[in-house]
Design goal:
Blueprint: E1 5-9, H1 14-25, E2 29-34, H2 37-47, E3 51-56, H3 62-76, E4 81-84, H4 92-97, H5 99-127, E5 131-137, H6 148-168, E6 174-180, H7 200-211, E7 217-220, H8 224-233, H9 236-239, H10 243-246
Parallel strand pairs: 1-2, 1-4, 2-3, 4-5, 5-6, 6-7
Helix pairs in contact: 1-7, 3-5, 5-6
C-alpha cells in the first residue's frame, strides 16, 4: 500500500475519516473530497503531508463532480484506489409525502454516486489498473417501511456496480461494494442503538481490507451476510407478519 494514490469522496463522514487515517498511516497519498469545508480543513490538518490535495463542495452538483475527479487524478498522478463514501439517510416518512425530499435522497445516494463513478471508471480503465469501492447498505437488500427510499437508491447503486464491474473486468479494474449494516455515526444519531450497531473504526478497517481482497461484495460487519440471506428470501406474506422486519 506504500504510496498508493487514494481518492476518498465524502471524506469527513465518520467512516471515511477513519479510512483516510488508515491509508495515511500506511503511507498512501490522499486526495479528499467532502461537502463541509471546515470539517475537511480539520481532517487535512490532522493527516498532514499524507494529503496531496483536497476540495470541498456540494456533491449533488453533478456537473462539477467530473472536474473534481480530474483535479484529484492530476494532483495524485493517477488513481490507484477510489472510495465513494458520502450518503444521506434522510427522513423516510417525509419522503413518502414530499417528492422533493425523496428526490434529495435519491440524488445524493444514486445520481451523485454515478456522476463520480463515471469519470473515476474512465480514468482507471484508461490506466488499465485500480479499484473503486462504494459504501452501500443492507437497506438495499429488501424494501422495508423504515427506510425504503434510501434502500431503493442503494439497491440501484449495487446494480449499477454489477454492470460496471463486468465492463471494467477486461481492463483489470476492480469494483467493490460494501454492504453496511447500521453504524454508530452522526447519520444514525437519533436511532435507538442495539447490539447490531458497529463502530466506524472497525468498519473502516474492513473496507480497507476488502479493497485489497477478491470479494466483489463485502458485508460489514460480517454477521449481516447470514442475516440478509434470511431477510432477502423470506416470502413476502411471512415477511409482512414479522414486525421487527416489516415495521417502522
Amino acid at each position: 500500500m506504500q504510496k498508493q494514490k487514494v481518492l476518498i469522496v465524502g471524506a469527513t463522514s465518520a467512516i471515511a475519516g477513519e479510512v483516510a487515517r488508515i491509508y495515511a498511516e500506511r503511507g498512501a497519498r490522499l486526495f479528499l473530497i467532502a461537502r463541509n469545508p471546515e470539517r475537511l480543513a480539520t481532517l487535512v490538518e490532522e493527516l498532514g503531508e499524507a494529503v496531496a490535495g483536497s476540495c470541498a463542495g456540494d456533491l449533488n452538483d453533478f456537473d462539477a463532480n467530473g472536474q473534481r475527479i480530474e483535479e484529484a487524478s492530476a494532483t495524485l498522478g493517477g488513481l490507484d484506489r477510489a472510495i465513494v463514501a458520502h450518503g444521506l439517510l434522510g427522513d423516510q416518512l417525509a419522503s413518502e409525502r414530499d417528492f422533493a425530499t425523496a428526490r434529495e435522497i435519491v440524488d445524493t445516494n444514486l445520481l451523485s454516486a454515478l456522476s463520480l463513478l463515471i469519470p473515476i471508471a474512465n480514468h482507471m480503465e484508461a490506466a488499465g489498473s485500480g479499484c473503486v469501492g462504494v459504501l452501500g447498505s443492507v437497506a438495499g437488500e429488501r424494501g422495508r417501511p423504515r427506510n425504503f427510499t434510501y434502500g431503493a437508491a442503494k439497491s440501484a447503486v449495487t446494480t449499477y456496480l454489477e454492470g460496471l464491474r463486468s465492463r471494467l473486468y477486461p481492463s483489470g479494474v476492480g469494483v467493490k461494494v460494501f454492504k453496511l449494516g447500521p453504524v454508530d455515526t452522526p447519520m444514525t444519531l437519533d436511532h435507538p442503538k442495539n447490539a447490531l450497531f458497529a463502530d466506524p473504526a472497525s468498519v473502516a478497517r474492513g473496507i480497507v481490507r476488502a479493497m485489497e481482497g477478491r470479494r466483489f461484495a463485502t458485508y460489514l460487519p460480517w454477521y449481516w451476510l447470514p442475516i440478509m440471506v434470511v431477510v432477502r428470501w423470506l416470502p413476502e406474506p411471512i415477511f409482512q407478519r414479522i414486525g421487527f422486519l416489516s415495521g417502522r
